[in-house]
Amino acid sequence: GNSVTQMEGPVTLSEEAFLTINCTYTATGYPSLFWYVQYPGEGLQLLLKATKADDKGSNKGFEATYRKETTSFHLEKGSVQVSDSAVYFCALFNTGRRALTFGSGTRLQVQP
Amino acid sequence: DVKVTQSSRYLVKRTGEKVFLECVQDMDHENMFWYRQDPGLGLRLIYFSYDVKMKEKGDIPEGYSVSREKKERFSLILESASTNQTSMYLCASSYSGSRDEQFFGPGTRLTVL
Lengths: 112, 113
Known about the structure:
The structure holds two protein chains of two kinds. In chain A, the strands form three sheets. In chain A, strands 2, 5, 6, 10, 11 and 12 form a six-stranded mixed β-sheet that branches. Chain A has a four-stranded antiparallel β-sheet with strand order 3-9-8-7, with no helix packed on it. Chain A has a two-stranded antiparallel sheet with strand order 1-4. The model of chain A has no long low-confidence stretch (mean pLDDT 93). Chain A is mostly beta strands. Chain A contains no helices and twelve strands. The N and C termini of chain A lie far apart (41 Å). Chain A is globular, with a radius of gyration of 13 Å. The mean pLDDT of chain B is 92. By secondary structure, chain B is mainly β. In chain B, the strands form two sheets. In chain B, strands 2, 4, 5, 6, 9, 10 and 11 form a seven-stranded mixed β-sheet that branches. A four-stranded antiparallel β-sheet of chain B has the order 1-3-8-7, with no helix packed on it.
């Protein structure tokens, strides 16, 4: 079946540090891939997505590239801010079941 | 902006009680979803619905049921609450033509004593 694996958290960084959160997936076919973010006390919101191999999704300084050869969709940001502190979820869209499959989430803590 | 609202932010119930969690969306979305969120497990799909009066089981439907009598409202029902149903419950909705981009409510933290 489909699955998404994310790196364990929490990830603690200083402001302006470089961020990488790893995400790998297992799926049949060519799923669309997503990063969702959950700020404290809020629901999830879509951060970025990519729908085919080699696509790069980007938003708010975050980027992720759909790598079919390594089945990965790692999230990166060049310079994090305190306001980026949140839980980040990697997900894929299961076209067969027409639903999202989420990873376990990675908590990011950015210190001033 | 799309808005998904959930009836309660926090809820405390006793074992054996019947519990209703309500979700309403205001953007005429066809698709609606219920997830539970637990530390280390991410979000797991309980039930989803693609139209009024239609429902499909997700990954963990046991102990839950749903109701969708109107397009904008999707209810999650715990027929007899148990302590292992203590969790954060998230509702989401999406357009028929874009099922993959989901819009989430703020969540209901349910504690079953």
